[in-house]
Amino acid sequence: MSRLPWDMSGRVVVISGGNAGIGLGFARGIARAGGDLVIWGRRQDRNEEAARELAEFGGRIFTQEVDVADEARVVEAFAEATAQMGRVDGAIANAGLMKNQGCFTNMTGEAWHDLLSVNQHGAFYLAREAARHMRTRAEAGDPGGSILFCASLSAVTGSIGMQHYNASKGAMAALARGIAVDMGKYGIRANTVCPGYTESETVKDQGPDSPLGSQVRERCPIPRFGNPSDFEGIGVYFMSDASRYHTGDLVRVDGGWMANAGKLNTSAERRA
Question: What CATH code is assigned to 12-204+229-260?
Fold first, then answer.
């Protein structure tokens, strides 16, 4: 019997930063769909905690302590993951930092390079190793694979004091397009997802009376913060055959924030 498009059984996905937040949301969705997972994170204790949760869905889970800013470690870890799991069908470059420097003129070279070393360079290292493996499989008669970059609305908007973050997330989207054009002949797809305001260790909903909390409730058509579970479906979509003809794209998962362009016309009062 042919498999359903979203069936992840027998598929292996590597997720950087997969032990918490949106990364763990991606992982939960893939695990629920029957997939096997390789979880990368800098803290092995958190990797193992995530693995215990994900293992309840019945798939294989392999964890590795990886700092994606370390190119040699990424190359080594990807080879270890392939040897352990037998193959890799998908990779999600999710690991990232978010820091505010207050103002662009305060931005130091060190702050710039430190953030890009994770967000931009780390994403490149993982994507490249995944593409190398997938191309080798394709040349052996087993084409296909999917690479997903987890960027941000900051890829397409500006931010005060966070130009390094803007640059890194915009670079992810550009990299995805380049990979899509170059690697499509091997059946390799590459896309970018841009989350809106989503609760995580760095973004907190402090209630309707807080500056950000009130802004989200007044201006977002779906008047709440996102949460990691909102990314389970999009992760399965891009890692499965459901997206087999979808590449080079940027998809926003933001509750309609960008569609509303930051206007106040979706407030509860206007809906009444």
Answer: 3.40.50.720
